[in-house]
Design brief:
Number of domains: 2
Number of helices: 2
CATH class of the largest domain: Mainly Beta
CATH architecture of the largest domain: 7 Propeller
CATH superfamily of the largest domain: YVTN repeat-like/Quinoprotein amine dehydrogenase
Helix content: under 10%
Mean pLDDT: 83
Low-confidence stretches: 11-15, 17-34, 451-474, 477-487
Length: 487
């Protein structure tokens, strides 16, 4: 009689065990695995107290770095600091002859804040946030707007004297070149670097066109040498923003009839669509979750909020003064608007975090789903008069079960939803915070009712179960025999 080699014998035994376990895992109910979660901010906004300081406070620019808010303050030739709760932390004096700090930008790592000195001297101040140390480097006269390349290596700015785009090494201040005029536009307003670092965008306006000029537009420049790729005419172009993937560029605009829009372009300046907003959209900023585009109106001091998914204006309610410049906290819960007519406005934005099971056994009855509201206030706002709606959606996004509850005073909401009638498959759960003044919608995809839910149809998986158990038993016996044989 042939004798199986010991190593082959062991391998066959292990294969038997693995096959049995695999068959059983396919037919036995999956254990509940709570923790599937998703979160997002929405258009639920609350006006908080302004950022105020003991010294004169007529801000022109604002930036957030490492949880600290920096506000440029021309009357005192300084930058004011505030913590995340809005408390005043002090003043950073800017050196030189009567500096006039305006637009600001923070590096993505929060280590530096760059400030334009909109004076004829032509300076950019660099604040090292860890120490508040200030250095400067010379730039074109009257730097008016400023941005950074995605890697924080290059400072781009526009000059109020010639409306050209200038590039500088962020570490050394060395000049890296500038754009040239195309003879079409005269007054620059904003500058923006694309997320991939290959392009630079410039918006321009001309309230009274000179001979041969249009009333404004968008220029698309090569980041490598600031040569023009393309341009598009757009009346009195103002604020600039771009989607996180670089596929869309947004520009604020107001025509001669005072009709204002945010226009959408592709990366090379081809018009796509537009949405009406409040007059003079002076600054635009994208939320950290890329869902919301906040638009500061200069003329009537209102804040518009555009849903980037549907490209619709969802809110025009907050008063923000003359919206000079916007900044947003890294968690997306606090929006800041520098208003030179008053102080820096602070707006709290609600966030909803949804938690659901990742999987449930077949025939499961009431199953808990929960949501938590947070916002940018030092104390959570009262959401008890609002509702959180939980919807269970099937693979075709049809609602197959639902429940609506009111949050408690701590912003928590939970509901038990009966899943016993649902067949096997993958589902998603959607939570919607629906107050009077806005909506937050969050979806956690992928929660699963195990394939073992065949039992719910009256079909018991008897044969696979028996085979799986036999394989497990056979594998175990073979391994025990192998150990005794080699003992």
């Amino acid at each position: 009689m042939a004798v199986t080699h010991p190593k082959v014998f062991s391998a066959l035994a292990l294969a038997s065990l693995a096959s049995g376990a695999l068959l059983l895992s396919a037919v036995l109910p999956a254990a509940a695995n709570p923790g599937l979660s998703a979160s997002g901010t929405g258009t639920v906004m609350t006006q908080l107290s302004d950022l105020t300081a003991p010294t004169s406070n007529s801000p022109q620019g604002v930036a957030v770095a490492s949880g600290v808010t920096y506000v440029s303050n021309p009357p005192t030739h300084s930058v004011l600091k505030f913590d995340s709760a809005g408390s005043y932390l002090g003043e950073i004096a800017l050196p030189g002859a009567s500096p006039f700090p305006t637009a600001m930008v923070a590096s993505s790592d929060g280590s530096k804040v760059y400030v334009c000195d909109d004076n004829a001297t032509g300076l950019v101040f660099t604040i090292t946030t860890a120490t508040d140390a200030v250095t400067s480097f010379s730039v074109a006269t009257q730097p008016f707007a400023i941005t950074l390349s995605p890697d924080n290596a290059i400072v781009y700015l526009i000059s109020n004297s010639d409306s050209l785009v200038y590039a500088y090494d962020a570490s050394t201040g060395s000049s890296l070149g500038h754009s040239v005029s195309d003879g079409l536009y005269a007054t620059a307003t904003h500058v923006l670097a694309s997320p991939d670092g290959t392009k630079v965008y410039e918006s321009l306006r001309d309230p009274i066109p000179a001979p041969g000029q249009t009333t404004g537009g968008l220029r698309v420049l090569n980041a490598s040498d600031l040569s023009e790729i393309d341009h598009a005419d757009l009346p009195n172009a103002g604020g600039l923003a771009e989607s996180a993937d670089g596929s869309r560029v947004w520009v604020g605009s107001t025509d001669s009839a005072n009709q204002s829009v945010v226009a959408e372009y592709d990366p090379v300046g081809t018009f796509v669509t537009s949405v009406a907003v409040s007059p003079s959209p002076n600054d635009l900023i994208l939320s950290p979750d890329h869902r919301w585009l906040y638009v500061a109106a200069f003329s009537n001091g209102l804040l518009d909020v555009i849903d980037t998914a549907s490209f619709t204006d969802t809110a025009t309610a907050m008063t923000i003064g003359d919206g000079r410049e916007l900044a947003i906290s890294s968690d997306g819960l606090r929006l800041y608007s520098a208003s030179s007519t008053s102080a820096t406005k602070v707006i709290s934005i609600a966030k909803l975090t949804l938690t659901s099971p990742a999987s449930v056994p077949p025939g499961t009855g009431p199953t808990a789903f929960s949501a938590q509201i947070t916002d940018g206030g030092a104390t959570l706002a009262d959401y008890t008069t609002n509702t959180v709606k939980f919807d269970i959606l099937d693979s075709s996004n049809m609602v197959v079960a639902t429940a609506t509850v009111a949050p408690n005073a701590a912003g928590a909401a939970s509901a038990s939803i009966d899943l016993s009638a649902l067949p096997a498959g993958t589902y998603s759960v959607r939570a919607t915070l629906d107050p009077i003044d806005g909506t937050v919608v969050v979806t956690a995809a992928g929660f699963r009712i195990s394939a073992a839910a065949l039992a719910a149809t009256g079909t018991e998986p008897v044969v696979p179960t028996v085979i799986g158990l036999l394989l497990l038993v056979a594998g175990s016996v073979a391994l025990v025999a192998r150990r005794r044989r080699t003992a």
